[in-house]
TrEMBL record:
It comes from Elstera litoralis. Keywords: Dioxygenase, Metal-binding, Oxidoreductase, Zinc. The keyword Nucleotide-binding does not apply. This is Extradiol ring-cleavage dioxygenase. Coiled coil: none annotated. The lineage of its organism: Bacteria, Pseudomonadati, Pseudomonadota, Alphaproteobacteria, Rhodospirillales. Its cofactor is Zn(2+).
Amino acid sequence: MTMPALFIAHGSPMLLADEPRVAGLAAWAKTLPRPKAVLMISAHWEERDLAIGATTPQPLIYDFYGFPEPLYQLKYPCPPAPELAGRVETLLAGVTKTRRDPTRGYDHGTYVPLLCCYPEADIPVLQIALPKVPPAELIRIGEALAPLREEGVMIIGSGYITHNMRAGFHQGPPRAWAAEFDAWIADAVVRKDAEALGNFETAAPGAKESLPTDEHFLPLLMAFGASLPYDEPIRFPIDGFEYGSFSRRSVQFG
């Protein structure tokens, strides 16, 4: 069975206190085939080259500040995935530079969504970094990783399609620029328009306002790339906005 590839809008660690959102992610996960392993690409780990995280148990990284104390006590003792690390290196040989970072534990972009989707922490997980390469190259990297899906590996990008912390928070309808950008991205994803997505910075309406920095969006491009070899349905199991400019849109490829 070919595993789906996903993009999960994970928000802050306070997602775990939002019972409806946790329930929504848990319900989504129950509709998916159980993976043999998960390959996570989080918005919260960027490196010059594609780094491959720990393949032995390491402490979690509490990469957030000023949150309630219980969030700093979270645990996610899932099995490591050393064989998957080797496969990633093999698949990316000649595609992009890779290196090992054997002491780099999971950041909250990995364990927060996984606590919602797979709270038993019984599936092996490997996290890889976002390399600092052009968006079109991220799509190519994702495509190179696509064979993992036929080996029982679920590829998950974790971030936000829109992420503007500078715009402030409000409870009204989404800002026009966020809604336009989110809709444009959804349309390009459904059409599998790799060229458009690779040039989103200049092609998409509202790109500058929606993404003053792009790290939260880029994991979507790797998950999208992993869908390109397949003729498969594309779904948006979760959508909508929060705080006026943060898209909750999550994507399922396959």
